[in-house]
Each structure stands twice: as structure tokens, then as C-alpha cells.
TrEMBL record:
One of its GO terms (biological process) is small molecule metabolic process. The keyword Zinc-finger does not apply. It comes from the Bacteria. It comes from Aquabacterium lacunae. SUPFAM superfamilies: FAH (SSF56529). Its cofactor is Mg(2+). This is Fumarylacetoacetate hydrolase family protein. Belongs to the FAH family. The lineage of its organism: Bacteria, Pseudomonadati, Pseudomonadota, Betaproteobacteria, Burkholderiales. Residues 77-321 form the Fumarylacetoacetase-like C-terminal domain.
Length: 323
């Protein structure tokens, strides 16, 4: 049975109170004894303790705590781009032109909690959202490994919700994925790290991602729609770089983002008759009038779960505020 692990601080404590780890039973938390200060330490040394926790040990109410990101900021934050055909198409591109896995990184300092405010920098006007399934590694991968689709449990500890918040007026005109996606608070993660049993990893394609803004649904798709599956990405990344226990891989987002390409005629005109500089000026000017882009006081709500409720990663809720 999947286990929902949270990292938290008591609301009544001081901000300097060391975070604790616990297992959620309904709306109560069984506090774990582990002193792990990072996600890597937790998945290396405390998984057995988490799996041994019982409902009778759940003495803290979720209402008494502030939930933190279950992925700590020392871990790598690796992302997949254009990994859903629907998102590729809404970006004005053809999925057939992407026979490769698009990889980039976000600064780990952008990681924030599942209920923390997302701060929009003063110079950013086109703030966007992306609900994504997050994979958390259970071990170090320091050499190439051929990960099989039915052996994900050998290298992954669990799953979490990621919001890949993006400043489109930085990312796209400047061609700066890292820069446009790495401002502080641009990476809400959590609320939970869902630890799966080996046989439960076969259910990941049936996880449904949803994202709403102010109660209006914007994104809704199954994780199984992703183009490059987790085993393929883990295999490719392990041949490319070292990965460490606790590192986070965000697996891409489906259609429904605020940023989307104009129609075919405007795309043709922009490609053949307008300079790149003018094209992006028009993009930003038009985007500033688009109500889909996030504004201060907007509230994003994200969930990932199977339709039958067998796997449930919880609900992430963040408000946008001005810097």
C-alpha cells in the first residue's frame, strides 16, 4: 500500500524549529524519529521506518503543522520539456519534430512548499503554470543503467506534485529556460512524497494531473500520455550525468498552459516577415492582455491521483503575490 510522507514544522513553533518527517493517516501525522535533514538522507535511511509507522502513532493533526516541500533544496531539480504531444501542439510545434527527450534544469533554490506564496518578480508580466509528475530517486546513479519499465522500484522512492512556474517573457524571448523558470518560489513541490510498493509503479500511467486557477480548470490529462516515459528518461540521464538519492525529475506538462502559439497564419507571417525582436515584442504585448496569465492574488490548485483514488499525491495550493 502506498505511503504518504510529509515534511513539516509545527505552526506553534519558531521558524528555526528543525523540520520533521511523518506519515499521513487520513488527516493525522505519525511523526518519525529520523533526524534526516535532506531528502537524500531520508530515502537512504528512513524508508523502513516510514513503512513501519502505524495509524495508532498518528498524533499530530495536519491543521497543526505547516507542510514543507518533501524535496529539499540541496537536491538536483531536473526537468523534461515538451514531453506531452498536446503541449507540443499548443506551443505551435509538431510532435514528429521532437524525436528526442528535451532536458533542462531549474535552480533548486526555487523549490518552495505546497502552500507557500509564489512571488512574481516586478519585471515579469507573463507568469505561467505547469502541473507535472515528480519522480524522486531512491539511490545514487553514478554510471549508465538500463532501467526497465517494470523495475522502476529499483531506482525510484516515490512521486510528488511539481508546479513548473515559468516567466514566459523571460524564457521565450531570451531562449532562457533555466533563467525563466528558476526565480525563487518558482518550484512548488508536494504536499507529499508518495512511497509506492513495487507492484504499484505499474499504475503511474493512470495518474491524472489537474490544475485550476481560481477554481477554473486549466489542465487535465493522464500521466500515461507523456512521450518519454520514466524508465527512458532515467536510462538516458544515468548515461549523461550522476544522479543522487533524493534528486527530483519533473516529467513535463500537458496542454492548458497560458502561453500558447497563435494560429497558423500569424505563425507564418512571424516566421517570414517579422524580425525576432519584433515578434517577441508583439508576443509580450499581446500576452499582457491575456487573462490566462497569472496575476497577483490568483490561486493555483494542483492534484495528481488515479481516478479510483488508489494512488493520491494530495493537493497543492499556492497564491501568486507581487514582489
Amino acid at each position: 500500500m502506498a505511503i504518504s510522507v510529509v515534511r513539516f514544522q509545527p505552526k506553534a513553533g519558531l521558524p528555526s524549529t528543525p523540520p520533521q518527517w511523518g506519515v499521513v493517516f487520513d488527516r493525522r501525522i505519525a511523526v518519525l524519529a529520523t533526524q534526516a535533514t535532506t531528502t537524500g538522507e531520508f530515502v537512504r535511511h528512513a524508508l523502513a521506518e516510514a513503512r513501519a509507522a502505524t495509524r495508532a502513532q498518528a498524533t499530530w493533526s495536519l491543521d497543526e503543522v505547516k507542510l514543507l516541500s518533501p524535496v529539499t533544496t540541496n537536491q538536483q531539480f531536473i526537468c523534461q520539456g515538451v514531453n506531452y504531444a498536446s503541449h507540443v501542439r499548443e506551443s505551435g510545434l509538431d510532435p514528429r519534430n521532437f524525436p528526442f527527450n528535451t532536458i533542462f534544469t531549474k535552480a533548486s533554490s526555487c523549490i518552495t512548499g505546497p502552500t507557500d506564496d509564489v512571488v512574481r518578480p516586478r519585471h515579469v508580466h507573463l507568469l505561467d503554470y505547469e502541473v507535472e509528475l515528480g519522480l524522486v530517486l531512491s539511490q545514487d546513479l553514478t554510471q549508465a543503467r538500463d532501467v526497465q519499465p517494470d523495475r522502476l522500484h529499483e531506482v525510484l522512492a516515490g512521486l510528488t506534485i511539481v508546479n513548473d512556474v515559468s516567466a514566459r517573457d523571460v524564457q521565450l524571448p531570451q531562449g532562457q529556460f533555466y533563467k525563466g523558470k528558476s526565480y525563487r518560489t518558482f518550484g512548488p513541490v508536494g504536499p507529499s512524497l508518495l512511497l509506492l510498493e513495487p507492484h504499484e509503479w505499474a499504475l503511474w500511467p493512470s495518474l491524472r494531473m489537474r490544475l485550476s486557477v481560481n477554481g477554473s480548470e486549466r489542465q487535465n490529462d493522464l500521466c500515461g500520455s507523456m512521450l518519454f516515459k520514466p524508465h527512458q528518461t532515467l536510462t538516458e540521464l544515468s548515461a549523461l550525468q550522476d544522479l543522487k538519492a533524493g534528486d527530483l525529475i519533473a516529467t513535463g506538462t500537458p496542454a492548458g498552459c497560458a502561453a500558447r502559439a497563435p494560429g497558423k497564419l500569424p505563425m507564418f507571417l512571424a516566421r517570414h516577415f517579422i524580425s525576432d525582436a519584433m515578434k517577441w515584442k508583439i508576443f509580450v504585448r499581446k500576452g499582457m492582455k491575456d487573462p490566462l496569465f497569472l496575476q497577483p492574488n490568483d490561486v493555483m490548485e494542483l492534484s495528481i491521483r488515479t481516478d479510483d483514488g488508489r494512488l493520491d499525491l494530495g493537493v497543492q495550493r499556492n497564491k501568486v503575490v507581487s514582489a
